[in-house]
Amino acid sequence: MASAPLLPEPLTAAGRSSEKISLPTLQSKMKCDPEGYEFELILIYRQFHSSIDLFKMQGDASFGSMSGVGADSSVVKDLADRALFLAHVAPFYPKHLSQFWSELAEFLGSNARSLPSGLRCHVTQALILLINRKMADLRETIALFMNLQTLGDRTLKKLAFSHVIHSIRRMNKKHKNESLNRGLQNILFPLLQNEEESKAKRSLVTLCELHRRKVWFDERTANAICTACFHPSSRIMIAALSFLLDYEKIVDASDSDESSSEDESTKLTPQAVISKEAIYKAHHKGTIASKKKKKAKLQRAMRSMKRQQRMSSERSSLNHYSPLNHLKDAQGFAEKLFSRLQNCNERFEVKMMILKVVARTIGLHRLILLNFYPFIMKYVQPHQRDVTTLLAAAVQACHDMIPPDAVEPLFKQIVNHFVHDRSRPESIAVGLNVVREICLRMPLLMTEDLLQDLVLYKKSHEKAVSVAARALMSLFREVCPSMLVKKDRGRSSDPKARPKAYGEVSVAEDVPDADLLQEDVGDISENDDIDSDGSLDHGIDNMHDEPLSDGSDENDDIENEANELSSDDDAAGSLNEHEADDSTSDEEDAVASSTDDDDVNGDSENDDEENKSDSEEEDHEEADAHSGSPRNGTENKTYKSLKRKASDFDSQLIDGDTSLRALKKLAGSKLGEAPSELGGDGILSNEDFKRIKELKAKKEAKVALTKHGLLGKGSNAKSSGFKVPDSSQLSIKRVDPTKLEAHLKQKLSKEERLECVRAGREERGKYQSRAAVKQKKTGGLSNRQKEHKKAMPLAAKRARVARSRQEKKKKNKGGKQFRGKKAWK
């Protein structure tokens, strides 16, 4: 019984050959033929019971050794092997081993502390295997696994903790199993309030991990974690406070849920970029099989891009989430925790943690806790340790629902202790930044004299101080420009802006951001006015070239002109380009003035002006004919056509006047109906809401571009440079202490500057001339070099030789005057 292999006697009784079979071999055979090895299963199950009895007898004999040293090593090994063996074959014998998991759980629960470490881990692995095979329920064993984590065995603690986390996560992977989750929570929540510190600590760690992995991302879990702040043990309280404070940092960092999970086999790949060339090749290049592969690859890339976009959007939406959002009684939680802060004797770091949690709760839920601000005042000193963290908590606890009188002493103390001429530049910058953040939430605290004194620090030679003062000035340019001196007001969007009085609430009378839609409609109407003016000019100009229709065709003219109203301004612009003479422009102005006049006397005045303009045209033509100045053919044609039409112009003008009047009425009615179509009955359509969303996005993009200096110059760019955030947005975000600090950039020494220069030249290659680069060129010869080496045809060679001979002969002939022999030779 002490050896792992089976004895030959039982196998011979079963009708098989007399040979020894090891447990792994028997395990594989039993999985292939469960019914044929039923007798062997019963035999090993009996051996397991006898091993447990023998182990208990040895434990009682060596009662003095609580660590199980007195137990025989062979008994321990047999017990561990048979427990794992039965756990592996349990799914194939559900009738025989239906209660096997309860025996293991009972054995672990009663003898866990006296078992050796190896046997404890093996029996725990067997029980985990049965739960994963759904032979046991997690609700009946989770209390046992929580107790196993408190035994002090690191390997066992890690094994039990990972099993609980992965089992609950796997359970809620496809959909949330609320009934099962509620049962498990009813077991873990009472453990959190247990007076035994080890059990409460393991329960808190388990709940925090499940909440961080977004498995139990509900109000009950968040409230249970928050109530751990009131545990009698300071270690449990510190763990709960640190989780509440660092949760936003955990969310901002890369989520380790995918990387640490053993169930997740796929890892996130870098985001693929789908080019137009890849899309074209997938649809138009290659064979049918290659196209199919390319299309499948494109689909995979698109799915991965959508998954990454979805995950990034979810992560960005949870950037400012905190478990404190789910508090059912936020006021009671803050008051109870603040009373513990006042009475606790913990070290300074623990007090700061409690202070930050109370401030975060006050700002997040907009609570009123008036005793909190006098308590902070005794810590507000420039020499205080972690003063920026303390000031960030003070800023976080300010909102517009608090009476300004309660915060005014704290506000004055910050100004008096940090912002004065004898203070260091770092302290002045921190003080100005804190004043700006507090005034952003409670602008009623600032007075006119104090603001003007603080703004004078913009002339400071210290960069951090001047930047902080200018930031304060830019804030009050939008909040209340009248409190600033006239030269400091700038060009604000609303010169008459003022902060809301305490308790004042702005009630929304219409749809939010509906004014953007009205402004957009106003811009459209102005464009339509411009188009209508251009079309009117177009119609007036056409009166010179084309005869107007009779009264019977008046409706057709009105319809044609109305269609021109909705067209672009190209017609009016093209006609304006063809106006080349002063006489024609005067004539068109006269005609336009006559058509715009509604009185009867306007017609007679128009006749006189037309006669004058005609006579002036004739005089100009005669002068040009005598002087011989050139004229364009098109201009002469227009002048001749105008002279021909001057006789019957009166009758045409009357008809044109009536048609233009009707056209004006039609255009005016259309422009008047445009705003009423948005919501005459106060109801907006889905298209209107989509348009509001687009206009809001454009406005926010404009503000962002202006903030970074990417928008063009002009009054619009200056007016929309800074946007005061809403109070709800300020309460959601956590105040970062590093943003309140003064970031002073010290001047670099010569050696540091040279190091920066050399670091920038690392990727740059060594300087060389173009000739050297060409000589080191790789990749073959150039076209010019190939032409030099190219073999010439035979006819070209002969022609080249003949041409060179002729050139030599010509040179010899023309160069010498004397052809005879020289005498001195």
UniProtKB/TrEMBL annotation:
- Kindly give the SUPFAM superfamilies that the UniProt entry links to this protein: ARM repeat
Main location class: nucleus
UniProt-annotated stretches for the region Disordered: 487-657, 762-825
Q: Where in or outside the cell is it found?
A: Nucleus, Nucleolus
User: From start to end residue, where is composition biased (Acidic residues)?
Assistant: 510-534, 551-571, 579-622
Composition bias of kind Basic residues appears in: 786-825
What is the documented function of this protein? Required for 60S pre-ribosomal subunits export to the cytoplasm.
Q: What is this protein called?
A: Protein SDA1
Q: What is the lineage of its organism?
A: Eukaryota, Viridiplantae, Streptophyta, Embryophyta, Tracheophyta
